[in-house]
Amino acid sequence: MTDAATHPTAGSTWSRIVGPFGKSISGTVGAILVLIVLVFVFIGPLVWTVDPNAQNLIDSFLAFSSAHPLGTDDQGRDTLARMMVGGRTSLLIGFGSMSLGLVLGATAGIVAALRGGIAETLVMRFVDALLALPGIVQAVIFAAIFGRGLGPLIIALGIYSLPIFARVSYTMTRQVIGHDYFNAAIILGASKTRAVFIHILPNIATAIMAVATLRIGSNILTGAALNFFGLGVQPPSPEWGLMIADARQFSWQTPELLILPGIALFITSIGFNLLGDGIRDWFDPKLRNT
Amino acid sequence: MTNILEVKGLTTSFLRSGNWTPVVHGIDFQVKRGETLAVVGESGSGKSVTALSVMRLLPPRTSRVEGSIKLGGDELLDRSEAEMRGIRGNRVAMIFQEPMTSLNPLMPVGEQIREAIMLHRNVSLAEAKALALDMLDKVRIPSAAKRYGEIPHQFSGGMRQRVMIAMALACKPELIIADEPTTALDVTIQAQILELLRDLREEEDMSVLFITHDMGVVAEIADRVMVMQNGSLVEEAEVRQLFRAPAASYTRTLLEAVPVVGSMAGKDAPEAFKASTFKVPPSPRPAHDAPLLDVKGLTIRFDVRSGLFERVSARVHAVENVSFSIGRGETLALVGESGSGKSTIGRTLVGLANCLRGEIRVAGEKEGSLCRTIEERRQRVQMIFQDPYASLDPRLRIGRALTEPLRIRGVSERDALEQAAELMRLVRLSPDMLKRFPHEFSGGQRQRICIARALSVKPALLIADEAVSALDVSIKAQIIDLMLELQQELDLSYLFISHDMAVVERLSHRVAVMYLGEIVEMGSRRNVFENPQHPYTRRLLQAVPVPDPERRMRRSLTVDEIHSPIRTKDFIPPVRRMITVSPGHVVQQWEMA
Amino acid sequence: MLTQVLKTLAHSVISLFLLFTFVFFMIRIMPGDPARLLGGAGASDYDVQTLRESLGLDRSVMEQFLIFVRNVAQGDFGRSIQTGQPVGAEILTALAWSFSLVTAAMLLAIAFAVPAGVVAAVKRNRLPDISLTSIAVASTSLPAFWLALILIEVFSVNLRLLPSGGTGDLRNYILPTVVLAATQVGLITRMTRASVVEVLTADYVRTARAKGVHPYRILLRHVLVNAAAPTVTVVGLQTGLVLAGSIVTETIFNWPGVGRLLIRAVQARDYPMIQALILVFGVAMVTFNLLADLLNMLIDPRLRKK
């Protein structure tokens, strides 16, 4: 018997965009946190126009004041400005590497699911192989291969994000292919390429978006760890992980230099993690427990 | 007679987005000792909620049960949760719909029954085990002692439902609530379970609250019936009374919409439910006309691989040497139970599955294809599926879903939209709905849209794979009528794949009965239904519950299982011979048992 | 059951081989010449060339690969470019240190996360769930290296309660164990919660309630066993990953494990060491996954068939 209650019914497009915020408190909190971080790192420097790299040794280790709301570091650089601009780098690392992993991984996953046969075996075995190494080990090796700096770091983290996107898009695509609406489209004469754009992409987009959001958070963390070890972005460019590394030797004197960037990383990461969960809850309640 | 269960003013509400919404509106009913009361209704009628309300199994935070529910004189609504635990499974027990998921998959079946006994009876472990074993015997599970320690995984659906019944009966409850206990089962298995329930009712003097959507099952098992609609009681009557002279108009519509096996006896043509609106001619074309679809020697097998090197260890003989043809404007029904291969044939005809051997030819094609769907057929053979919820892309507006096949073929957007509007009118929906998403439609409307989408490419043959099986009775009747009308308007042929004998009898010209991948009997509908030859056809027809309590009959109590089409890899299918009974009526030769 | 295990093993070996081949060729694209790094700033081109030949690095990458495969088949993983010692012995010692740390961390994580996941599932969408789930999210969002520094700052520098690194006695285990466990708590809690929630809504749990079974008994006899598999799998997977992946923790706490070994090998372009470590990591992953599979087969008889 058909039971309307077993099939999730969504409201209009509008209520799907706005309404869901009420349904997932954690998602809403995540969205707010991410928004705060975005405003802080992108709008902040427009308001607080102090040069983050301007050294002034006389002003080193200043406490919080109106001239330097978050004080200064060992070289007298303004901590607030460095936090803002450093956050930009962290977000760029997170977003850039996620996008790279998404494009490559999703393409591989969808092709593997649609094609089957050798393509499927090759892609999925390779993905398994990559997943057999911890992310940080992959990142360390890739970072060593591609050299130091922002670009290589993004490429390294991008490759290390590839398997998860390939897995998710593979599984989701298989799910769509299993539905009779996909069968109907094929019977009605749609080519597989057309089916990808009309049926597959729209239906797997939210799941991938959720994973992508979660991935930004974890890539920011892994990126910061690599920067901390000197395997990524090089000084003097400000970046949260680097700032923690710099603050380490003065932590007895100015613990806030150690604490502040860590908290920024923590908030950013929580924000993206909660937002990712929220996207899943809002758009696809069935995925909630996966 | 005393009342075992007395329900007064039962109102059940659910907390939905902050508001208490009642779904059962103050209903009264009683179950007398030794009586079976059937609660019947379509989806959303509140019948299952009523059952769960009596058991007090609804989530306490989001549901509210008001009124009075008295079991043997004790008010259940006043009982604490701890007291209810002493009552559930002891004085009132429940059998659920889904045998495949209702048993704990990791606990031996015997243990699950023993657990119920030990909860409510002060017996030793050994005594409880003995009692549990008795119960397995009582529900006629063959070699019960051996199967006591097996997990549900090793049982078929029918056998699992027997275990569920044994568990419910274990503590000799005053009342059994059975919620659609046979709905998920094949028809021959359903007949066995119903028979078992009737026997047990006499042996154990059970009182039963039997929830079902199926009027045939009601007629088979109920003493009294209450009909529910939208959470309210529509009518309550003694079973014969209800079928003979339904008082409420809703009951009448419901009964009119139920196809009755045998009701078409003596008629040659399919018949719409609203028979007054139009007539279907008996035979669409003279028999010597070239058929629209001709299938010869179709064989479909799937390999089962296992072991370290994924070697073929067995084969599913899904379809074995099947031949049939369909004329223009004709409906051929493929009927059979699970594993009969009927759906596989449909999927192969549209290219969703590959076949091993055989020839498929659609009229107009230069040559038939060996096992492959050639592109030109794509347009002429279309398909509608069982689940209307899974057959429409949830992210595509209906307009887009209907124009997409035309756009693929290079029709301009404006022309395609015009045609889509026309298609909507064809399936009796308003073209204004084209802007909506699938979730804004009901199941029946969605199935209409699926039909419209299939018709968008002007096919000659429509394959309907259990296309009305998931729908409520009244909606089912409407869709069948629509299909019959469209058949006449557009001169369509149908391959109607179904397990529902009554529906098949209603709308088909010819019928092919399938068992384990083979057609065991094929002929005109009249011949197959009125003069069935093959023992399986007879068994199938006999198993269908008849929605007429006057024709209630006892069947022999069997524990047959439906066999599996999985065979060893060196299995060679026997060569079958078809015997002609009368012109156009053939039956497979069978061995006498 | 044996075929099942063998099949998993066969799949893993293929994956491992792919992984290893990939890494082998990738690390040779790494910028930086190990011979020059080893020779130091003062080495002449001739010295560097001699060194290169003695290390076998003058051969083509393909040749190097075949030689390596042959040697591994004979149980020889090569000598470290940095120390000249056989890498096998060095890795074994480090592995023992990592293993003891990871065992402690995983036990601590499980001890918190599994009960937390069960409680969150049972009390879902209520206060205990919300607070436990929040802890889980916080745990996955914590930068491990930062947490380690803060803990050192508080417990070693300020309170002088615990050593800030190295290996001495059991007190040395406390901080690194806590940091590693903290990174794992989130995932295990969420996985346990998700599978318990799923089982709680299963039809057979409703059947048990309809029999009158007490909620605690339902949880113990019907829910937990059925919900165990995903948690067992994820713990197996994570144990393997953490064993290899505790680079950050090991480096900050100066723990002589395989993670720290890897970071040093990468910095020195010590090819034999990196190769051998990757192999060991892969084998560790496979082993722990297999152990998890076996445990699941013990719990669920259905997995033993077919």
UniProtKB/TrEMBL annotation, chain A:
The chain crosses the membrane at residues 25-48, 91-114, 126-147, 153-170, 257-276. The keyword Chaperone does not apply. InterPro entries: BP-dependent_transpt_permease, MetI-like, MetI-like_sf. It comes from the Bacteria. Residues 87-276 form the ABC transmembrane type-1 domain. The keyword Transcription regulation does not apply. It is found in: Cell membrane. Keywords: Cell membrane, Membrane, Transmembrane, Transmembrane helix, Transport. Pfam families: BPD_transp_1. It is a multi-pass membrane protein. GO terms for cellular component: plasma membrane. One of its GO terms (biological process) is transmembrane transport. Belongs to the binding-protein-dependent transport system permease family. PANTHER family: OLIGOPEPTIDE TRANSPORT SYSTEM PERMEASE PROTEIN APPC (PTHR43386), PEPTIDE ABC TRANSPORTER PERMEASE PROTEIN (PTHR43386:SF25). This is Binding-protein-dependent transport systems inner membrane component. It comes from Chelativorans sp. (strain BNC1).
Automatic annotation (TrEMBL), chain B:
It comes from the Bacteria. The keyword Cytoplasm does not apply. The keyword Translocase applies. One of its GO terms (biological process) is peptide transport. NCBIfam families: PRK10419.1 (NF007739), PRK11308.1 (NF008453). Belongs to the ABC transporter superfamily. Glutathione importer (TC 3.A.1.5.11) family. Part of the ABC transporter complex GsiABCD involved in glutathione import. Responsible for energy coupling to the transport system. This is Glutathione import ATP-binding protein GsiA.
TrEMBL record, chain C:
Keywords: Cell membrane, Membrane, Transmembrane, Transmembrane helix, Transport. GO terms for biological process: transmembrane transport. The keyword Chaperone does not apply. InterPro entries: BPD_transp_1_N, MetI-like, MetI-like_sf. Its main location: membrane. It is found in: Cell membrane. It is a multi-pass membrane protein. CDD domains: TM_PBP2. Belongs to the binding-protein-dependent transport system permease family. This is Binding-protein-dependent transport systems inner membrane component. It comes from Chelativorans sp. (strain BNC1). The lineage of its organism: Bacteria, Pseudomonadati, Pseudomonadota, Alphaproteobacteria, Hyphomicrobiales.
